[in-house]
Amino acid sequence: MPTVTIYSRVGCPYCDMAKSLLRQKSVAFDEIDVGRAPDRRPEMIAKSGGRTTVPQIFIDGRHVGGCDDLYALDEGGGLDPLLAA
């Protein structure tokens, strides 16, 4: 199973939706709450190519994007192969 990292913030409905999809697929993930650890936000922005919104999701270091991107990847059939790698 690949390493999945999600940068999130408490109270963010998009973060909750993204985490819910990953849980539905029985995927373990590391969560970095940039609200509680604001020193990690610049890291997220740099790794995501300048994106400042949460969530930002990475699978084995590959930037997947935000919640909408994750769902679009799943609907297009591209998420499961990434998670099976």
TrEMBL record:
Keyword terms: Cytoplasm, Disulfide bond, Electron transport, Redox-active center, Transport
Family annotation (Pfam families): Glutaredoxin
Coiled-coil annotated residue ranges, if any: none
InterPro entries to which the protein is assigned, alphabetical: GLR_AS (IPR011767), Glutaredoxin (IPR002109), Glutaredoxin_subgr (IPR014025), GRX_bact (IPR011900), Thioredoxin-like_sf (IPR036249)
A GO BP annotation: cell redox homeostasis
Gene Ontology molecular functions: glutathione disulfide oxidoreductase activity
Glutaredoxin domain residues: 4-64
Signal peptide per UniProt: none
Disulfide bond listed as a keyword: yes
GO cellular component, one term: cytoplasm
Role summary: Has a glutathione-disulfide oxidoreductase activity in the presence of NADPH and glutathione reductase. Reduces low molecular weight disulfides and proteins.
Protein family membership: Belongs to the glutaredoxin family.
Identification of the protein by name: Glutaredoxin
